[in-house]
Amino acid sequence: MTLGLPRRTGSLPPPTPTGETTGATGAPGATETTGVTDATCATDAALIGESLTDPDRFAGLFDRHADEIHRYVARRLDDVTTADDVTAETFLVAFRKRARYDLGRADARPWLYGIASNLISGHRRSETRRLKALARQAPERAAEFEDRSAERVTADRLRPALAAALAGLGSAERDLLLLVAWADLSYEEAAQALGIPIGTVRSRLSRTRTKIRRSLESHR
Asked: CB under 8 Å to 38, separation ≥6 — which residues?
């Protein structure tokens, strides 16, 4: 099965599942109207649940979250074309695994960010090389570190000191920090995204912030 997701910078088209029957009649393109909620007001969980019998309903999830996921991936990888591919693959994986989604979780963003983070890991070396290249730029006076300092910069304007600090983090540390700082996930949502206990989120973030603070101080 393929999802029709051609590259298109800035606005990705919705997934088009093929090879599956939909609707009450089982005929391709038929629409089941009974018990189906309006996609604009349905929760993510409702859309995913309905997509189990009507795959076209999954397009509502794509329409709702694809741009946000794309911005995050592009920010991490600083490559729009790669971000197009990773975003498309994120929703393809999500579509294939939708039967395993916990429908008790109304918001699917943490789930989608978790899938995207796993896919970003395949580009870890290029991400680290880019951060190290930014770190070699002319140094500037480092600002005081704040817990959410990473939130205040864009991927293409990372301060050399902060780029060096991020490059020095392990992959698990960087994923967690940027899900909280750039994706604006809560601790609980980050725990869901990464499949780790919330206590691990707190302790890992504490260690990560200490590492970044020390790295920034060393660049003064």
From this structure: none
Q: What is the residue type of 103?
A: L
Nearest to 176 by CA among 161, 155, 153, 192: 192
Q: How far apart are the C-alpha atoms of 177 and 75, rounded to whole Å?
A: 14
| Partners of residue 17 on adjacent β-strands | 3
Question: What is d(CA 1, CA 120) in angstroms, rounded to the nearest whole number?
Answer: 23
At 150 the three-state DSSP class reads helix
> pLDDT tens, 163-203?
788 888 899 999 999 999 999 999 999 999 999 999 999 99
For residue 166, the tally of other CB atoms under 10 A from its CB is 25
Would you tell me how many other CB atoms lie within 10 Å of the CB of residue 128? 16
| Nearest to 215, CA basis, from 120, 150, 151 | 150
Q: Which tens digits make up the pLDDT trace of 29-88?
A: 444 444 556 667 899 999 999 999 999 999 999 999 999 999 999 988 888 888 999 999
Residue 96 CB: number of other CB atoms within 10 A?
A: 12
- Residue 93 tokens read as 């994986």
Contact 155, 171 (CB under 8 A): no
Virtual torsion, Cα 204, 145, 163, 11, nearest 10 deg = 80
